[in-house]
Specification:
The structure is a homodimer of 363-residue chains.
Chain A: E1 10-14, H1 15-31, E2 35-36, H2 46-54, E3 60-62, H3 65-73, E4 79-81, H4 88-100, E5 105-108, H5 111-121, E6 128-133, H6 145-156, E7 160-167, H7 170-173, H8 178-201, E8 208-211, H9 217-220, E9 228-229, H10 239-242, E10 259-267, E11 272-275, E12 291-293, E13 299-302, E14 308-311, E15 324-328, H11 332-336, E16 341-346, E17 349-355
Parallel strand pairs in A: 1-16, 2-9, 3-4, 4-5, 5-6, 6-7, 7-8, 8-9
Antiparallel strand pairs in A: 1-10, 10-11, 10-15, 11-14, 12-15, 13-14, 16-17
Helix pairs in contact in A: 3-4, 4-5, 6-8
């Protein structure tokens, strides 16, 4: 199959750009002696997770238990579930996952939840690995003494073990410009590093401080207190990450746009080209519309669940019924979550079709 | 399984409200002698399509070929694919679908596309059924003479047959208030009815004029020139359809909110409750956030791909870690498209789990 035969709308991956992105991040972190556990919530695709492990990643983060279950079923090691697992049924599943993949790490921010996991885990050779999730605006427990006390609770229980801190600051990832982003992540990650020191002073080992993102990896990788980074979006990139600003104030170009959505012109009313990609083909959570690739002067407008309306009055070439147009998505993670597979291309040749096996696994 | 055991986030369907919605629409159209071909793009679920057929629907619309293929595989009759099928590969699949389900109707708005379908169809006992898609702002050919000429072309070709007009005005569905909506759909549907008369004066039978929506069904059902209605959202409803205005200027309450997204509180920082539903649990294409059910004073704020941040400072009751909260989605169709199944509830009991078999089938 080649690029022009793929049924649209579809996700296309430029493998050359993808390989470059992976190698760049991996070598950057390796040179700074940081572990690399990229976030699987971006791609939800075991083949992508394997490509990252082949490039030196020690495992894969998962946003949710059900996402981690899919990665585990595909043999991906080193799972870290970055949201707390809450409720009796889910804790039972978490224990089952830990029984199968003993190196899996779960995050916690609540004392009762820790006790519930300990109780459900039962007596075991390998205690369930827990990291304390620190609060920087969304989930987590306050850094400092509250986090220390939660670590002490974990340390006191027989069926769970404290492995470290999750220190993820979602807002830092998208802070602009470059210098403000540096300041923000240095400040918040600094609190994590202080908390780590407090825990160690309390006599508890804290081997793990994990966090960071595609937006902050440069700064976090220079932070001697952080042990591992968990960026996700860099494998594909998107319009939004392009806007966060590079060191010279321009676009953020550390990584290449490797992922596009390909659509077809399915109707051609005067002045417009209607393509077969709308709200079900692109996520709409960002305040901009998809960016056409390979044609200038085309402005995408949302036109419902299944359609986009391209203003082609200033287009650099004519668009005819049946023409294909690729777009960079505004925001990659929830866009990928709309598709069942990724068409992995080397040039115009489809080298593989990768199932997005954890698509929809938000539970 | 009961309501409280469903892994979150998940789609819940209140079967009592769902049954009421279906019966109301079905009896309304039956009393006015209109055929009822509800749109499957809302639910993408063969079990919902079957429930509608059991209530008198003659078939099911599909937004796309791949969606229709799923319905056909489930034995749903009377398919109408409401977007033109463009390109060699898709036309070949359309012919295969017509060979399997001869009553399937495809829409067209382009002369070359009509010829391509005719050529691909080959000599056959049952010509492929084509309806001309009329332009009211998105896809389609202009009503009046251009549409007549396209009908004539279809009528002149051996392997396709002209069955009528698709007259869908997407903007009419959401026009507010009630009276403006009435005026809009009467005007646009009036053009379809005129076009039908022109086609019949040209000596071509035009048995079908299909269109209408949850927002316009009252008005379209009174239009003697329309033969069938294809509303979709009424089965579930959503926040947006609530805002389009009823006859007394209040909320639009013709149908009940039967569908909710259930989430769990997974973190409880001071003043906020973080739930496990974000951009991957709700579509974000409307300018409002999910509406909590069964609790007052809760304001949902987007908090990324997997989280929502509830401001609970004015909540009518305390929210604890592990509590479940249901939300009416802002916009139902693209929200349903995020999930693999619908939990169909009678009271608190899960009566069935219905696969959303055409989820992601936007091709």
């Amino acid at each position: 199959m080649n690029r022009h035969e793929i049924p649209t709308p579809a996700l296309l991956l430029d493998l050359d750009a993808f390989d470059d992105n992976i190698n760049k991040m991996s070598s950057h972190l390796k040179a700074r002696n940081k572990a690399f556990r990229p976030h699987g919530k971006t791609h939800k695709c075991p083949e992508v997770a394997k490509a990252l492990i082949n490039a030196g990643a020690i495992g894969c983060c998962a946003a949710r238990l059900s996402e981690a279950e899919v990665f585990a079923a595909s043999g991906i090691p080193g799972l870290l579930i970055t949201t707390a697992v809450i409720g009796k049924e889910k804790i039972a599943r978490a224990v089952a996952l830990a029984n199968k993949a003993a190196d899996t790490i779960f995050v916690v921010d609540d004392r009762q939840n820790v006790r519930d996991i300990n109780d459900a885990a039962g007596k075991r050779n390998a205690p369930i690995k827990l990291a304390v999730d620190l609060f920087f605006g969304r989930t987590g427990i306050a850094p400092g003494q509250p986090a220390v006390e939660l670590a002490q609770l974990i340390d006191s229980l027989p069926n769970v073990s404290f492995v470290g801190l999750q220190s993820y600051d979602g807002a830092a990832a998208h802070t602009t410009p470059f210098d403000a982003r540096a300041t923000r992540t240095k400040t918040t990650m600094g609190k994590a590093v202080e908390t780590r020191a407090m825990i160690e002073r309390a006599g508890i080992a804290c081997p793990l401080v994990t966090g960071g993102s595609t937006g902050t990896y440069r700064f976090d990788a220079e932070n001697p207190g952080m042990t591992e980074l968990q960026p996700g979006s860099f494998v594909f990139m998107d319009m939004e990450y392009g806007t966060i600003g590079g060191p010279d104030g321009s676009e953020y170009r550390d990584f290449k746009n490797s992922l596009t959505v390909v659509t077809t012109v399915v109707s051609r009313p005067p002045g417009f080209a209607i393509v077969d990609g709308g709200y079900k083909a692109f996520s709409t959570d960002r305040p901009f519309t998809p960016e056409a690739v390979g044609i200038e002067g085309v402005v995408y407008g949302w036109a419902g669940d299944e359609h986009g309306r391209l203003d082609v009055s200033n287009a650099s070439r004519d668009l005819k019924l049946g023409d294909r147009i690729e777009f960079i998505p505004p925001h990659v993670d929830p866009t990928v979550n709309l598709y069942d597979s990724i068409y992995a291309l080397r040039g115009d040749r489809v080298e593989a079709i990768w199932p997005i096996a954890a698509r929809g696994k938000s539970q």
